[in-house]
Design goal:
7 strands, alpha/beta, 266 residues
């Protein structure tokens, strides 16, 4: 009886969340079921407070976020790995999905010195800060497409610590968009929780926590992108609270502009 009641309550809550998400989608807000011990998402990082505390600590915002909510140096290690695996030494145009505090953007811009750095971010209070980044271009963000970016126009499109938190359909919608906007020879890079990141202990802990992290099958994903003209070039295991994520890097070997996608910009 108790188990049946719990199932009914969860089903009701799930239905209610779907209704709320449908109503709130125009505002780029989504309710995600589950729990996490990740300090970076337990409470939303407010821009003014975070920036002020970084300045008081004598740190860049990115280094402050790493030191306080992650592991010191984890962002630099991921960016260094992404650039090394990609083989890029310069990128004229870069696009980032969900830069948030800008901790990855800061280091990518410093390393590759783009002429334009496109940003899709739903957290409005971080936009004034993100606008101060060199050559930043704030694009209108609907939370599921890269609609303002032209097909085949970007040298590097990436997302870090974004896809681990959002539903599978949203992840794959963004992946299709990344394929669309990357130029032939361009790079797409993103991190997800794959089977390489899982152990029995991690899975048991996540079951107990009702985790919000959402694993994606690695070999299927590599094959999916391979069928869309994306060659897998390598990966890097990155820090995630209680586990790891796998940063996957792909190079576009043929024009995928005719492939299905969500974008609206030709």
């Amino acid at each position: 009886m108790a188990t049946s009641l719990k199932r009914q309550v969860r089903a009701g809550a799930s239905h209610a969340a779907r209704l709320v998400n449908t109503a709130m989608r125009p505002l780029n807000i989504q309710i995600v079921p589950g729990r996490t011990t990740d300090p970076a998402v337990q409470s939303f990082l407010r821009a003014r407070k975070t920036i002020a505390r970084a300045r008081a600590a004598g740190l860049s915002v990115g280094d402050y976020v790493d030191q306080t909510f992650s592991q010191p140096g984890t962002t630099a290690r991921s960016v260094d790995a992404m650039i090394r695996i990609s083989g890029l030494s310069f990128a004229r145009r870069i696009c980032e999905i969900g830069p948030g505090t800008g901790r990855y953007a800061e280091k990518v811009i410093a390393a590759l010195k783009p002429e334009a750095y496109e940003i899709y971010e739903t957290a409005d209070d971080w936009l004034p800060y993100l606008r101060t980044l060199p050559n930043a271009v704030i694009q209108p963000c609907d939370g599921h497409t890269l609609s303002a970016t032209a097909s085949g126009s970007v040298d590097l499109v990436h997302a870090n610590k974004v896809f681990v938190y959002i539903p599978f359909n949203a992840v794959m919608g963004y992946v299709d968009e990344m394929v669309r906007v990357a130029r032939p020879g361009g790079i797409i890079a993103f991190d997800v929780v794959t089977e390489r990141c899982l152990t029995d202990e991690v899975v048991q802990a996540w079951i107990a926590q009702e985790t919000i992290y959402r694993p994606v099958p690695r070999e299927w994903l590599i094959g999916y992108l391979g069928r869309r003209g994306m060659a897998f070039t390598g990966s890097h295991l990155a820090y995630l609270t209680d586990s790891q994520t796998e940063l996957l890097v792909f190079r576009k070997t043929r024009d995928g502009a005719s492939l299905p996608g969500n974008g609206r910009c030709p």
